[in-house]
Each structure stands twice: as C-alpha cells, then as structure tokens.
Design goal:
Distance between the termini: 69 Å
Largest sheet: 7 strands, mixed
Strand order of the largest sheet: 16-15-14-17-18-20-19
Radius of gyration: 23 Å
CATH superfamily of the largest domain: Vaccinia Virus protein VP39
Order of helices and strands: EHEEEEEHEEEHHEEEEHEHEHEHEHEHEE
Amino acid sequence: MNKLPTIYLKRNKEDSLLRFHPWVFSGAVGHINGEPREGDLVCVRSSSGEALGVGHYQQGSIVCRILEFFKEDLPDGFYRQRISEAYRMRRGLGLVSKDNDTYRLVHGEGDFLPGLVADVYGDTAVVQAHSAGMHRDRRLVADAILEAVPEVKNVYYKSEGTLPFRKSFDDIADGYLSGGQSSCLARENGLTFSIDWLRGQKTGFFIDQRENRSLVERYSRGKKVLNMFCYTGGFSVYAMRGGATSVTSVDSSEKAVELVTANMQRNFPDVANHTEVCEDAFRFLDSMAGDYDLVILDPPAFAKHRDAIRNALQGYRRLNAKALEKIRSGGLLFTFSCSQAIDKDMFRLAVFSAAAMTGRRVRILHQLHQPQDHPINIYHPEGEYLKGLVLEVE
C-alpha cells in the first residue's frame, strides 16, 4: 500500500498524464487521501486506482507537478540522476568549455524537474525554486549539483522572488547552500561578464539570449547599433566584438547602465565608441534620430499572466512601431518577447501590426527562440517562452 498521500482523479481525467504532461490541475481532482502539506510528495492515481505518477503537491490551479510517471514513489538518488543527465547533455552540446562556463543546467519541465531552475556561472550554481516542493528539497538539489557537476564549488539559492504561497513557509531566504562567493566573472563564447546573482534580475544574467547575441555579432560589422533594455549589456558587448562602428546601450536602471559599462570595459578596455544612456525606452525612442543601422528590442516580460495579454500586445505594437519608424533604410531590427503568456503567433501579429502602422517594407530574416540549454519538453509545449524576429526594414 502506498505510504504517500494520494490524489485520486475524477473519472476520465487522466488523459493528459497518459500523454506525459507533467501538470495536474485542480479541476481534475476527485478527492485526496491524507493531508499533504505544501511541497509534499504525493502519488497521483486514476479514479480506478492506477498509479499515474508521483510529484510535488501545491495548493492552487496546478495541484501537482509530476516528477516520475507511473511510479508510487521517487527512487533513491532521484535528483542526482536527473541533474547528472542534464549536465551530460550540456557537455555533449559543447556548452562546458574553457571559453564558455555560463549555461543553464536545469530548465524545469524541459529537464523533467518541474519547478526547478539552475544556472551555472563558472564555479557557482544559482538555484531558483518555482514550486513549494523544490523549495523544500533545495538542499537535496544542492548536494546533487555538487556531486554531478565537478566545476561547481558554490550553490546559491535565490527564490525569494519566485516562490508562490510564501506564507506557507517561514524559511524562505536567499543565500548560499554551499560555499560562498559575493561576485563572479563568467565566460560566454570567449567574452567575460560580471554576474551579480545577489542583486541582479533572475539568476543574474539572461543566458537564454546567448545564441541570439552571437547572431547580433555576426550582423554588426560596420553598423551603428542601438541596444534597448540593455541590462548587463550582453548584446552590446557582442556587437562591439562584431565590429560595430558605435554601440549605444539604453536602460532605465542606473544599476544596469553601470553593469554594461563595466562589462564593456572588461572586454574592451580602450573602447571609445560605446555610449550609455539611463532613460525610459519609450522616451528615448521618441526623441532619437533615425541613424541606427541595427536595433535590439529585448524588453522585460510585458505579460506575466494571461489577464495582462491585451495590454502586453499593445505595448509590443507601440514599441516595435517606434523602432521600425526610426531605423535606417536597410536596417535590421532584432525584436523579442520573453512573456510566456504571449505565444509566437500573437507576438508575430503584434510586430506585423507595428510594421503596417509605419507603412515601411519589412521582411523576416530569422525567427528566433530559446537555446538548447533551455530545452522544451515535447509533452509540455508551455515551456516555449522566448520568441524573436530579425527584420530587414527598407
């Protein structure tokens, strides 16, 4: 007899689990045997008693995130096995090298560990829990990372801003689970960046734009480049290495402007053709002259929830229309959305509407998405969140 609390589904509500979708929604629950707490392991069964999987329990619309299908409990060494598999895949993709020690080690459902994100910067892994269960298992996760990834010596936990139902726990605090280090220099494709996981956004750096930064580098030679919402300046540094005649980095945050300045000087100590601007993006675009050959729009998520989709789409239309109106003839626009609630068709329609508003001739050269260390579980299409287009504007 299974010792875990058990969720029994309503009749005919097991189809999504039989298709390996890892979420159990509250509307599918018939009844629960036992009294699971936030983050407890629970067994999920069909109405007839068939074991469908084991996962983390949580109150809300998603009541369970499945970790193992068709099992009644987790095997010994579960986290070590899953994280070892994730690390082997990154090594096999060539993401762990002397020139690149910055990569996403665990990408939630994409690595069959729903609710968990772990990014590696040199010898430090930064862990974020997005579920109560991963918060409760954080030390097991840290131990598994230290065992599976030989380069990692420190594990920093950063979940104060990502955990739902914070009132259920009195032990949520960012800090080191192992080791300790206050700052880090990490390598990405041969470039050096200062990563501030203590105070920075997300885990400190937007690793998901690595391949798209390389594409900007490829197109930057001889161009005047504008990087909006620059944050740490990743696109700016790549554009400079690509041979841009000048790079302008814009962000409304003074801290971000300081970071991009430091990262630019770290890679190009004698740089004289980089300009930093601390200003609201829309205000800057309103007042700028139309003399940029390549413009990058990588804003923060405009829609974190479905009820914000309408306003988000208006924001994307307005932002892209301003850039399309001002960019030089023959210029390139790299435009992105990281809002999971906005799918790629919605985003493309918003950019299409922006182009139509300007009346300029626009062609799509590339359709961009998240890189290989942010894999999408084929049974969980919701994991596809990053959308991008490269547009040529006449």
